[in-house]
Amino acid sequence: MMRILVADDHAMFGEALHYLLKSIDPALEVRAVNSVAAALDAIVSDGAPDLVLLDYAMPDLDGLQGIDSIRAVDGTVRIAMLSGNTDPIVVRSALAKGVLGWIPKSLPPATLIHALRLMMAGQRFVPPELLETAPLMGLSEREGQVALLLAQGNPDKVIAERLGIEPATARVHVRRILKKSGAANRTQYAAMVRS
Protein backbone atom coordinates (compact mmCIF):
# COMPACT_ATOMS: atom_id res chain seq x y z
CA MET A 1 0.00 0.00 0.00
CA MET A 2 1.32 3.44 -0.92
CA ARG A 3 1.34 6.18 1.72
CA ILE A 4 1.04 9.86 0.81
CA LEU A 5 1.41 12.80 3.16
CA VAL A 6 -0.26 16.03 2.01
CA ALA A 7 1.06 19.17 3.73
CA ASP A 8 -1.16 22.12 2.81
CA ASP A 9 -2.41 24.88 5.09
CA HIS A 10 -5.71 25.27 3.19
CA ALA A 11 -8.06 22.67 4.64
CA MET A 12 -10.42 22.69 1.66
CA PHE A 13 -7.62 22.06 -0.85
CA GLY A 14 -6.17 19.33 1.37
CA GLU A 15 -9.56 17.61 1.60
CA ALA A 16 -10.13 17.89 -2.16
CA LEU A 17 -6.69 16.43 -2.84
CA HIS A 18 -7.35 13.64 -0.33
CA TYR A 19 -10.57 12.77 -2.22
CA LEU A 20 -8.80 12.95 -5.60
CA LEU A 21 -5.98 10.69 -4.43
CA LYS A 22 -8.44 8.14 -3.06
CA SER A 23 -10.27 8.22 -6.42
CA ILE A 24 -7.00 7.27 -8.16
CA ASP A 25 -6.54 4.30 -5.87
CA PRO A 26 -8.87 3.53 -2.93
CA ALA A 27 -6.07 1.52 -1.31
CA LEU A 28 -3.88 4.61 -0.95
CA GLU A 29 -3.24 5.73 2.59
CA VAL A 30 -3.50 9.54 2.58
CA ARG A 31 -2.83 11.80 5.54
CA ALA A 32 -3.28 15.57 5.41
CA VAL A 33 -1.56 18.05 7.72
CA ASN A 34 -1.57 21.85 7.74
CA SER A 35 2.04 22.83 8.55
CA VAL A 36 5.61 21.72 7.97
CA ALA A 37 5.94 21.05 11.72
CA ALA A 38 2.93 18.69 11.56
CA ALA A 39 4.44 16.98 8.51
CA LEU A 40 7.71 16.45 10.41
CA ASP A 41 5.79 15.03 13.38
CA ALA A 42 3.91 12.66 11.04
CA ILE A 43 7.15 11.44 9.45
CA VAL A 44 8.77 10.87 12.85
CA SER A 45 5.73 9.10 14.34
CA ASP A 46 4.53 7.11 11.29
CA GLY A 47 7.76 6.71 9.31
CA ALA A 48 8.50 8.17 5.91
CA PRO A 49 5.59 8.11 3.45
CA ASP A 50 6.11 7.09 -0.18
CA LEU A 51 5.47 10.69 -1.27
CA VAL A 52 5.11 14.06 0.45
CA LEU A 53 3.03 16.65 -1.39
CA LEU A 54 4.26 19.93 0.13
CA ASP A 55 2.55 23.28 -0.39
CA TYR A 56 5.12 25.96 -1.20
CA ALA A 57 3.40 28.65 0.90
CA MET A 58 3.13 27.21 4.40
CA PRO A 59 2.51 29.29 7.53
CA ASP A 60 5.60 28.12 9.41
CA LEU A 61 8.25 27.72 6.66
CA ASP A 62 8.35 28.42 2.94
CA GLY A 63 8.53 25.40 0.66
CA LEU A 64 12.28 25.52 0.12
CA GLN A 65 12.92 25.60 3.87
CA GLY A 66 10.28 22.88 4.25
CA ILE A 67 12.18 20.64 1.83
CA ASP A 68 15.35 21.08 3.88
CA SER A 69 13.51 20.39 7.16
CA ILE A 70 11.90 17.22 5.83
CA ARG A 71 15.19 15.99 4.36
CA ALA A 72 16.89 16.63 7.71
CA VAL A 73 14.45 14.17 9.32
CA ASP A 74 14.57 11.63 6.47
CA GLY A 75 16.93 12.16 3.55
CA THR A 76 15.25 9.49 1.40
CA VAL A 77 11.67 10.77 1.38
CA ARG A 78 10.30 11.75 -2.04
CA ILE A 79 8.82 15.26 -2.15
CA ALA A 80 6.70 17.05 -4.73
CA MET A 81 5.64 20.67 -4.46
CA LEU A 82 2.10 22.07 -4.69
CA SER A 83 1.65 25.76 -5.34
CA GLY A 84 -0.23 28.58 -6.94
CA ASN A 85 3.22 30.15 -7.49
CA THR A 86 4.50 29.48 -11.01
CA ASP A 87 7.67 31.61 -10.90
CA PRO A 88 10.30 29.64 -12.88
CA ILE A 89 13.03 30.71 -10.46
CA VAL A 90 11.15 29.27 -7.48
CA VAL A 91 10.33 26.10 -9.44
CA ARG A 92 13.96 25.62 -10.49
CA SER A 93 15.15 26.27 -6.94
CA ALA A 94 12.89 23.48 -5.65
CA LEU A 95 14.00 21.14 -8.44
CA ALA A 96 17.63 21.89 -7.57
CA LYS A 97 16.83 20.56 -4.09
CA GLY A 98 15.74 17.26 -5.65
CA VAL A 99 11.94 17.41 -5.54
CA LEU A 100 10.09 15.09 -7.91
CA GLY A 101 7.95 17.80 -9.37
CA TRP A 102 5.93 20.97 -9.20
CA ILE A 103 2.14 20.80 -9.30
CA PRO A 104 0.39 24.12 -9.97
CA LYS A 105 -2.86 24.24 -8.02
CA SER A 106 -4.56 25.44 -11.20
CA LEU A 107 -3.97 22.12 -13.02
CA PRO A 108 -7.12 20.52 -14.42
CA PRO A 109 -8.09 17.37 -12.45
CA ALA A 110 -7.16 14.95 -15.28
CA THR A 111 -3.66 16.47 -15.58
CA LEU A 112 -3.29 16.49 -11.80
CA ILE A 113 -4.13 12.78 -11.67
CA HIS A 114 -1.58 12.10 -14.44
CA ALA A 115 1.08 14.12 -12.57
CA LEU A 116 0.41 12.29 -9.32
CA ARG A 117 0.60 8.89 -11.01
CA LEU A 118 3.97 9.82 -12.55
CA MET A 119 5.38 11.01 -9.25
CA MET A 120 4.03 8.04 -7.30
CA ALA A 121 5.97 5.91 -9.80
CA GLY A 122 9.10 7.94 -8.99
CA GLN A 123 9.11 10.01 -12.18
CA ARG A 124 9.42 13.79 -12.41
CA PHE A 125 6.57 16.12 -13.40
CA VAL A 126 6.90 19.82 -14.17
CA PRO A 127 4.75 21.68 -16.69
CA PRO A 128 7.19 22.75 -19.44
CA GLU A 129 6.14 26.40 -19.33
CA LEU A 130 7.48 26.61 -15.76
CA LEU A 131 10.99 25.79 -16.95
CA GLU A 132 11.25 28.37 -19.74
CA THR A 133 13.89 30.77 -18.49
CA ALA A 134 16.18 31.79 -21.34
CA PRO A 135 18.84 33.56 -19.22
CA LEU A 136 19.60 30.20 -17.56
CA MET A 137 20.43 28.50 -20.86
CA GLY A 138 24.08 27.86 -21.72
CA LEU A 139 25.23 27.77 -18.11
CA SER A 140 27.14 24.98 -16.42
CA GLU A 141 25.34 23.08 -13.66
CA ARG A 142 27.09 25.11 -10.93
CA GLU A 143 26.48 28.38 -12.79
CA GLY A 144 22.81 27.42 -13.04
CA GLN A 145 22.66 26.92 -9.27
CA VAL A 146 24.34 30.29 -8.71
CA ALA A 147 22.08 31.93 -11.29
CA LEU A 148 18.92 30.77 -9.52
CA LEU A 149 20.10 32.26 -6.25
CA LEU A 150 21.34 35.40 -8.00
CA ALA A 151 17.97 35.93 -9.68
CA GLN A 152 16.30 35.76 -6.26
CA GLY A 153 18.39 38.76 -5.22
CA ASN A 154 20.83 36.93 -2.93
CA PRO A 155 24.24 38.56 -2.31
CA ASP A 156 27.44 36.62 -3.04
CA LYS A 157 27.91 35.69 0.63
CA VAL A 158 24.46 34.04 0.83
CA ILE A 159 24.99 32.28 -2.51
CA ALA A 160 28.30 30.93 -1.22
CA GLU A 161 26.74 29.73 2.06
CA ARG A 162 23.82 28.00 0.33
CA LEU A 163 26.05 26.20 -2.16
CA GLY A 164 28.93 25.47 0.20
CA ILE A 165 31.47 27.43 -1.83
CA GLU A 166 33.81 30.32 -1.06
CA PRO A 167 32.45 33.88 -1.53
CA ALA A 168 35.26 34.57 -4.02
CA THR A 169 34.14 31.57 -6.08
CA ALA A 170 30.54 32.84 -5.97
CA ARG A 171 31.74 36.24 -7.25
CA VAL A 172 33.56 34.58 -10.16
CA HIS A 173 30.41 32.63 -11.09
CA VAL A 174 28.28 35.78 -10.86
CA ARG A 175 30.64 37.68 -13.18
CA ARG A 176 30.54 34.81 -15.72
CA ILE A 177 26.74 34.61 -15.56
CA LEU A 178 26.36 38.35 -16.11
CA LYS A 179 28.80 38.23 -19.03
CA LYS A 180 27.09 35.21 -20.67
CA SER A 181 23.64 36.76 -20.26
CA GLY A 182 24.65 40.22 -21.42
CA ALA A 183 23.19 41.76 -18.25
CA ALA A 184 24.90 44.93 -17.03
CA ASN A 185 24.32 44.15 -13.36
CA ARG A 186 22.57 41.85 -10.87
CA THR A 187 19.31 43.79 -10.95
CA GLN A 188 19.11 43.66 -14.74
CA TYR A 189 19.87 39.91 -14.66
CA ALA A 190 17.06 39.27 -12.15
CA ALA A 191 14.67 41.27 -14.34
CA MET A 192 15.72 39.30 -17.44
CA VAL A 193 15.13 35.97 -15.72
CA ARG A 194 11.71 36.98 -14.41
CA SER A 195 10.49 38.51 -17.69
Automatic annotation (TrEMBL):
Domain HTH luxR-type: 132-195
Domain Response regulatory: 3-120
GO-annotated molecular function: DNA binding
Pfam families recorded: GerE, Response_reg
GO BP terms in the entry: phosphorelay signal transduction system; regulation of DNA-templated transcription
Chain positions found as 4-aspartylphosphate: D55
InterPro entries hit by this protein: CheY-like_superfamily, NreC/VraR/RcsB-like_REC, Sig_transdc_resp-reg_C-effctor, Sig_transdc_resp-reg_receiver, Tscrpt_reg_LuxR_C, WalR-like, WH-like_DNA-bd_sf
Keywords: DNA-binding, Phosphoprotein
CDD domains cross-referenced by the UniProt entry: LuxR_C_like, REC_NarL-like
UniProt name for this protein: Two component transcriptional regulator, LuxR family
Lineage: Bacteria, Pseudomonadati, Pseudomonadota, Alphaproteobacteria, Hyphomicrobiales
